[in-house]
Amino acid sequence: MARILVLYYSSYGHVSTMAEAVAAGIRDAGHEADIRRVAETAPEDVVKNFGFQHDESHDLIEGPDVLGEYDGLVLGAPTRFGRLPSQMAAFLDTCGGVWASGALIGKPGAVFTSSNSQHGGQETTLFSMITNLMHFGMSIIGLDYGFEGQNGIDEVKGGAPYGATTIAGPDGSRQPSQVEIDGAKYLGRRVANTAAKMAG
Ligand SMILES: Cc1cc2nc3c(=O)[nH]c(=O)nc-3n(C[C@H](O)[C@H](O)[C@H](O)COP(=O)(O)O)c2cc1C
């Protein structure tokens, strides 16, 4: 059985919902998943003016070193101008110790995101987080085409070979659709099954 950390930041709940789906995929496959969030670092006036939620749906990450205790890591964060948000970057920038220890080398890592528009930078955001995971020495797991739900143009939907995604819509009111949830579950399952094989 693999033990996977799902670590996210979310301002309005979309990425939080996707984190739950990633974790559900891990657990459905018989593995263990912990969901943690990184701290809000935006100034209080920004939090207020932009209506960021005070996310208490999951516990805060205990610190950077716990990352090394897991068999795999799945990072999720919304798009900010086509890249990862400062809240997630701020946490990752505290991970020098875990990087230096080599504790994540060779372990599977994956990413997921959300954006308001369909082409508002999902893939570049995914890659901005993949960059970090590769510096940690992780082996990247994508949302491979075994997940057929990402194909087709029958409906508006997220999902990319580089990670699971959802689209929040121009006013943020759209919630993750069934196919997007299924993509997140597939990604979680794939990471956990890979971690179990690598550890074995
Ligand atoms: C400062 C800022 C920059 C953003 N930049 C983008 C962007 O480049 N492209 C886009 O489609 N959405 C952008 N958004 C919208 C967010 O990606 C959207 O609110 C988020 O995906 C919702 O996820 P959440 O509910 O987990 O926070 C931006 C939002 C903020 C507050």
Automatic annotation (TrEMBL):
Name the UniProt record assigns to this protein: NAD(P)H dehydrogenase (quinone)
Cofactors (names): FMN
Reactions that this protein is recorded to catalyse: a quinone + NADPH + H(+) = a quinol + NADP(+); a quinone + NADH + H(+) = a quinol + NAD(+)
Binding, FMN: 10-15, 79-81, 135
Residues annotated to bind NAD(+): 12
UniProt domain Flavodoxin-like: residue ranges: 4-191
Enzyme Commission number(s) of this protein: 1.6.5.2
InterPro entries tied to this protein: Flavodoxin/NO_synth, Flavoprotein-like_sf, Flavoprotein_WrbA-like, FMN_Rdtase-like_dom, NQO
Residues that hold substrate according to the record: 99
Signal peptide (from-to): none
Cofactor note: Binds 1 FMN per monomer.
Similarity comment text for this entry: Belongs to the WrbA family.
Lineage: Bacteria, Pseudomonadati, Pseudomonadota, Alphaproteobacteria, Sphingomonadales
Gene Ontology, cellular component aspect: membrane
Annotated keywords: Flavoprotein, FMN, NAD, NADP, Nucleotide-binding, Oxidoreductase
GO molecular function: flavin adenine dinucleotide binding; FMN binding; NAD binding; NAD(P)H dehydrogenase (quinone) activity; NADP binding
HAMAP family assigned to the protein according to its UniProt record, in alphabetical order: NQOR
